Every structure is written in C-alpha cells, then in structure tokens.
Amino acid sequence: MIVKSIKKLAKCAGILATSISIMSVSAVNAEQVGWAEKEELKFGFIKLTDMAPLAVAYENGYFEDEGLYVTLEAQANWKVLLDRVIDGELDGAHMLAGQPLGATIGYGTKAHIITAFSMDLNGNAITVSNDVWKQMKPNIPQVDGKVQHPISATALKPVVEKSISEGKPFKMGMVFPVSTHNYELRYWLAAGGLHPGYYAPHKGDTSGQIDADVQLSVTPPPQMPATMEAGTISGYCVGEPWNQQAVFKGIGVPVITDYEIWKNNPEKVFGVSSEWAKKNPNTHIRVVKAMIRAAMWLDENNNANRDAAVKMLAKPQYVGADADVIANSMTGTFEYEKGDKRSVPDFNVFFRYNATYPYYSDAIWYLTQMRRWGQISEQKSDDWYMQTAKEVYRPDIYAQAAKALIAEKKANASDFPDFATETGFKPPQTEFLDNVTYDGSKPNEYLNKLTIGLKGADKI
How far apart are the first and last CA of the chain? Predict the structure, then answer.
C-alpha cells in the first residue's frame, strides 16, 4: 500500500508539472485521451506465451506510464476467464479471438464483449502422441532424410481409419469450442479429408462430434501434455509452450504449426465488456496504448528482446514453464520431432504486419468457421457478418491509442495502417494450407469453396 501511495503522489506531481507546461507532450496527450476513469485494474490471462504483451506492459512500466496500476492474474481456464470479465471481477483479459464474437452472438454465455487490440499472430501447433507419429511417419514424404513440411492430415487419415475399424474412437484435444485452436485443428483435419464433426446448438448438442471421424474435446492448455501422456487423447492443438513441452518430455511430436495452416493468422485479443468500455473510455485507450508499446518492444530490432521476454514469461506468475521450453518457439525456432529444430522466425509475431490492429476480416473468418461447423445453426447474410464484426472489433479505439503514441513520439505513423484510408479488411488471403483464398468481404462465397462443412442453407 505504501508503494502504491508513493506512486499516486508521483502521479499527482506529474499532473502539476503538466499543468505548468501546457506545451509538453504529456499535456497534448491528456487533451487527446483524458485521464483514466479507473486507475486500479485487474486483468486475467491463461498461462501461454502469447500473454506476453500483458507481462511486458506491466514489467516495463508501460501501464504505470499511463497512470494505471494493474494486477495480472492467471485464470483456471477460458470459461472462468470469460465469466469473470462478464461479471466485472476482471476489468479485461487475454482472450481467444473467438470469445468476444461467440459471447456477443450468444454461443454459450451471452454478453457483449469487444476488442480494440489483437495480441499476436500465429503461436499454435498440432501435436500427436509418439504412437500416432510412428504410424503417420511412413505416409509423409521425406527430403534429405527429414520429413517434408507442411504435413497434411492425409498422413493421419489411415491412422484414424485403423483406430475406428478396431472400435476405438480417435480423440484429440483443443482448448475451447470458440478457440482458434478448435478452428485450426478442424481446418487441418478437413483439408486432409477427415471430418471433425458438427455442433447443433438448436438441438441442444454442443459436443461438436456429430458425424465426426475425429472426436474433439476441451482440455485446458497446461493440461494437454499430461492428458495425452495418459492416453485420454491421441493429439491436440494448443499454444506454446505446451507443444514444445511434449518434445522436451519425449511424449509427442508437433506435426504442423498454425503458421503453416494459415500464414500470419490472428490468435488472441484483449477483451473487455462493452459496458466497461463505455464507462471507462479513457482507461481503455490508455490500456491499448501500453499494450501497443509492449508489442513493439517484443518485435523490435528483429526480435532482439525475445531472450529477455523468455526470462520474464518463465516466472511462475506468468507462464511458469522452463525458459528453455519457452525459448524453443519464442526466439524464432520450432522443434518438431526431437532434434528436428527448424527456423520459424514468425512463429510468434506481436507487432509487425500490423499484428495489433483489430481487422474486421479477422473477425469474419472466425464467424465463417462457427457457421461451417454448426455453432451458427442457420445461413447468415454477408451483411450480418459485417455488422457482427463491427459490434465486436473496434479499430476506432485502437486508432485513438495509436495516434496518441504518435503525438508523444513513442511511435511513428509508419508503424500503423493509414487510418485515413484503412477499411478494416485485409486483401484476399491466399496462404492457407489447402490453397483456398479467403476474402473477408465475401464470407458466403468463401464458405462455398470449402469441401467439408456447412454452407448455404445447410442445417444439421
């Protein structure tokens, strides 16, 4: 409490100094953004390396620079995290990109959640058990004695068919029904000719296993390796460090990264309730400012700060995994089969490629996958996708934060999209595993291109 009081006194002194020098940069910023309506904040996260912008903003003092006194608190699982944001126990949280969208459209818990900040690109992988890998490997082409990447799920198909013929359902884990991991795992399986199953919420079936060749179920990220080692699941899709943990423990082999499934895909977001954002608009902008600075630090000078970030994340209050495990992916490499370490400099991206900007087209991709697998039961118009994206993704708030940082000379205009012309839509994206082009402005046309999954007026 004494430390907090000293900090508040220091802030008061800073306000006095600002009022004396109205031409100072901080005064310009106060005029642009306004002082925080709420200074003491509690943010939730799950123990994954992509919570890094929160840890960095805290450890490097970026939150305090904004007059914010933040507590970061690890959560048991994604459902608890979302419920605590909705109930107001948390002011905001590190969220799955699909969580604000799922909540807002009423899949699961109904609540209006928004995001003005995308936390990262990429960062996930799919891992299979040693036994499954042993069966898959003969089906994978090799070059110079090494398996050729990316690995298609066609190599898994005979393994799944054999398991089913023996009366054993083939089971894999993902972290949450509206998680990127669920949709990426489904995308990979479907591209290889394996059906990952449908949801039918209108019939009360939220298992996601209707017509499934591969049965997917929820497992919290830190529990993935132990669950696979116990034989409950034969593989999983999760964020780091829990794929590399399987390699270090010698219990499994990562077969593909999400970078190979969809190059530079959006992963986590920072979510708050719409009600909280309306009540605390200046606080919200200041939080986004601090997190933009953290993301910049994580990527600057070709990832020069990643070793320092690894040490930070290894602390028990953050990810709490061994630093060597975290470094395996966080520093630009990724280890597949034990000893097969390959360069993947963009496995974790926090700022470059406009990673922090909340694109409408990213939101719409998640909505198309919800429709594809039945979480959205009925056909929706292209306008519905657009309207829903705008309700949840808030590039207007992001732009205010970025412009304030530019005014303070803490960032350059060239670091961000051109806000005067930005539409919120990326150009059509072609770098998917199955070579299907995604154009966020034409969601129904995109769904029609996908061979497995619901489209048009299809209904379970």
Answer: 57
Angle between helices 360-372 and 98-105 (to 10 degrees): 60
Sign of CA dihedral 84, 89, 95, 99: positive
- Phi and psi torsions of 116, nearest 5°: -120, 10
Query: Sorting pLDDT into bands at 50, 70 and 90, what band is 14?
Result: very low
CB atoms within 10 A of CB 61: 12
Tens-place pLDDT, residues 185-204: 999 999 999 999 999 999 99
Whether 118 and 269 have beta carbons less than 8 Å apart is answered as: yes
Q: What is the pTM of this model?
A: 0.92
Any residues with CB less than 8 A from the CB of 28 and at least 6 apart, and which?
407, 408
Helix (H, G, I), strand (E, B) or coil at 352: helix
For residue 350 the two structure tokens come to 């926090």
Contacts of 154 (CB under 8 A, 6+ apart): 139, 192, 193
b (16+ CB within 10 A) / e for 130-143: bebbebbeeebeee
Question: Quick check: bond before 222 cis, omega within 30?
Answer: no
> What are 171's two structure tokens?
């089971």
Alpha helices, H only, 173-280: 180-191, 224-229, 242-249, 258-261, 274-279
Q: How many residues does the chain have?
A: 460
